[in-house]
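Input:
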Amino acid sequence: MSKAIVEHAFRPTTRSLDEVTVGEALPELVVPLTRTLIVSTALASRDYQDVHHDAELAVQRGSKDIFMNILSTNGLVGRYVTDWAGPGAVLTDVNIRLGAPNYPDDTMTLTGSVTSKDEGADADGKGAVEVTLRGANGLGDHVTGTVRLLLPAGGAR
Amino acid sequence: MSGALSLDDKLRAFVGQASGPPTKGRHPVNEPMITHWVEAMGDHNPVYVDAEAAEAAGFKGIIAPPTMLQAWIMRGLRASLVSDAARDAGAATADAPSDQVMALLEEAGFTSVVATNCDQHYERPLVLGDLLEVSSVIDSISGEKQTGLGIGHFITNRLEYRDQRGELVATMRFRILKFKPGTGTAAPAAVAATEDPAPRPLRPRPAITQDNSFFFEGARQHKLLIQRCSNCGTLRHPPRPSCAVCRSFAWDTLEASGKGTIFSFVVNHYPQVPAFDYPLVVALVELQEGTRLVANVSGIIRETAAIGMAVEAGFEDFDDELSLPVFHPADETRTD
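Output:
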């Protein structure tokens, strides 16, 4: 597997509430699960448990290999949504349910769609949008969940 | 150790207790840690690294990636190595309630652990300099469940993250499954740990009398009825046989507008009864018509519930027999 950095079109301007339609799909994000990704994200979250960086010890503990930690799953899920929503999006809730582990040499494909949105804006000129998503790897669903975020009512910044 | 208590009884005693002492972050929210994180994640959002871009996007300055929340509290490599070494040497761990729960389960053969759910709610974006402290409560411990991974118990912790001013900045519910390896129903690792889909217990039944049956009948038809004296017109609740003003036994009913305000309320966290959702907001609602009734309030959590808050009645059909008024904040539009 290549060590290619995961690149994904980041939206440079903030999506407005008017631009969002319930039911619309977010662009898919394919994440190559390299050892570098699993180890570097575990360490960036200050998680030094050996099952996230030492394959030999991970096997001794009953796992087939090292696997991604939850904080990193959260990080990729958050990134998936803000890549689509743009810099002014304010995340308010990230709810995830975990399934099959993310082992190295696999890929995780994140897909999602908008499942609800506020019709009007609050006093700050923002409204809430809910995205329901899943990240599937070769074993099944690694993660399913919802993310709620606030977007400005109209006119992208 | 007493043989009289079952494992479930022993576990239940820990629900509602602090998991352990509060933990303070080692460092305030800072650019180097954020940079490591966004580079590892491949996240190109400029608001995490560029103050000008963050301000242009509507923030006061650089913000931390919201999902980085837990990283600010992690204890670091040295403490991890020390506790791993102690664990591998078989040393008894600290006696914090969460450690005791783990020890009880391990003794009973539930030796493996897997995280199953993580729900984070952010009150505001974290900015450079924020120093977090987290406190954690054991929110619930399930009975024994058969899952894809094995027979086990789900343990849910509720964590509150506060800043250097003591203000709540985020909450998190974190659920793990502590299970017996090799007792699963599914191919290992291929299927998510799924909770036993046991039917939820029904809500407790109200005690129906000749006096109050109209109220519950009305609720089933999604009508909020108030008892009215048909002699002098005085409204009364809760229902009773005679009018406190004119002593008349004659009465009829008035359909309430459903509009009211919270006169008083409590937020119930523990003990938890399986038929209800928690935190459970129980309010004394003063109706526009003047009478007061006790009901649940949905759509608000304890941070926003307030005396005087305008609420409006909706109805919830809990099962085929029981429907009850449930109030929600008046500015929320609801479809029910």
